[in-house]
Design goal:
alpha/beta; eight-stranded mixed β-sheet
Amino acid sequence: MGETIKLTASDGHTLGGYRAEPAGAAKGGLVIVQEIFGVNGHIRNVCDSYAAEGYVAVAPALFDRIEPGLELKYDEPGTARGRQLRLEIAWDDAVKDIEAAMINLSGSGKLGVVGYCYGGSVAWLSATRLHPAASVCYYGGQIVDFKDEKPNCPVQMHFGRTDPMILPEHIEAVQEAQAAAELEVHLYDAGHGFTCDERGGFNADSTELAKGRTLAFLDRSLS
């Protein structure tokens, strides 16, 4: 089980977070970046699952810049509120909060960023605006808006083929813009949010495959 922590960003903003520790020596540190639903039970479970694989995992509460401690449900009101909050938070501020989590992970070895949904887009910006050793982006719908930014590390991306919010041409545009980068893209027979077992679009087979690829990528990049 992990613990609630406090982080301080470079602009002085104080935010909460969740940190999970491995049982033995750490393979490295991971920043786990939330969906639009906050650092809720699912994201804490994700942190715990990476800790079980040997990583120190920290999930910064990005929504604390507007409403501290907010956890949203996977329903219509929760989705609407999460989408609204995402639009109200500047991308640069979200990156500052990722940086704060990376500082918290100092001493854990090499650091990676793994983000889901909204966090998938933030994980991409973490790769281009910060200097992690690796970044993994799950179904980040805004990555295409920043497709011309150059990553400072290897990046792995995961998308669902039937995701109505991320069209094939969006993925192709990212790949074309990043033809010279160390970019690994995987597609699955699934929709948006397919790794979250609390969402209707959960796909167990795709989740298992994606998690295996993610762990192999992290092992290579953080070793």
